[in-house]
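Encode chain A's predicted structure.
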Amino acid sequence: MSRSRSMARKRAVQALYMWQMTGVDLSDIDQQFVLEHDMKNVDLKYFKEILHKVPACIDEIDGHIRVLLDRPFNEVDPVERAVMRMGVYELQHRLDVPYRVIINEGIELAKVFGAEDGYKYVNSILDGVAKKLRATEINAKLKAKRSS
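Encoded structure for chain A:
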């Protein structure tokens, strides 16, 4: 797991949070982050992909999350919602990234930015989505574990 990719996720969660809370145009948020934040160690291409593609797929992403929630969608902490949205996007569209990496990164970001135990909720939702979207990858790992 590369540090620049982790930093891209960190900045992307902050930017997605801003977008969720303000509705400011994505291009403006993109520019603001590049100008106002330390982006030196950030995989900028990955940051921009997440920032722009998550909102573009928002209905589909939110659909994967909603079916696993135990509360109304609007009652999910906005930070945790941003983390989950990013994680679901990656689980669905970034098959080059192992599902465990996506879930672990989501957990770490929720620990940093979310409510005290919010990371547990993020973990359960991303794990549930992974079981649906990455079933082949998960089953292959289980088979490999059993045969070793």
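The chain is about 75% helix and 0% strand.
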